TrEMBL record:
Superkingdom, taxonomy of origin: Bacteria
Protein's recorded name: DUF2200 domain-containing protein
Lineage of producing organism: Bacteria, Pseudomonadati, Bacteroidota, Flavobacteriia, Flavobacteriales
Pfam families in the cross-refs: DUF2200 (PF09966)
Gene3D superfamilies from the UniProt entry: uncharacterized protein sp1917 domain
């Protein structure tokens, strides 16, 4: 995988695609934000700041207050890779987020997405 290119991408440039994917399936931007906040520990203000300053994925996850302790419960395949087997820590975090947004778009209940 060409990870370096993904790591240097602006999180703000990909965020609208997460929202669009969710909204096409009847979900909301607020639900996407909830997922991101659950995963990263950002609050709404912190998430907005990261979007406004157009940080890279690398910076976005480096500055995340705290990765949710339940991330190990996120399993399955995304982009042809099992998320629990991805060895590169940053790529695994990015794929965790992709997987959660994918679950949202597929209609999974928020309680299950947030591993409650």
């Amino acid at each position: 995988m060409k990870n370096e290119r993904i790591y240097k991408m602006s999180f703000a440039s990909v965020y609208p695609h997460y929202v669009t994917k969710a909204e096409k399936k009847g979900r909301t931007a607020e639900e996407v934000d909830t997922i991101i906040q659950w995963l990263t520990g950002y609050d709404q203000k912190g998430l907005k700041k990261q979007l406004d300053t157009k940080v890279t994925f690398e910076t976005f996850f480096d500055e995340a207050p705290q990765l949710n302790p339940n991330v190990s419960k996120i399993t399955g395949v995304i982009c042809g890779y099992r998320v629990e087997e991805i060895e590169e820590p940053l790529m695994q975090k990015i794929r965790y987020l992709d997987k959660l947004v994918d679950e949202l778009a597929k209609g999974k209940a928020m309680e299950k997405i947030l591993r409650k």
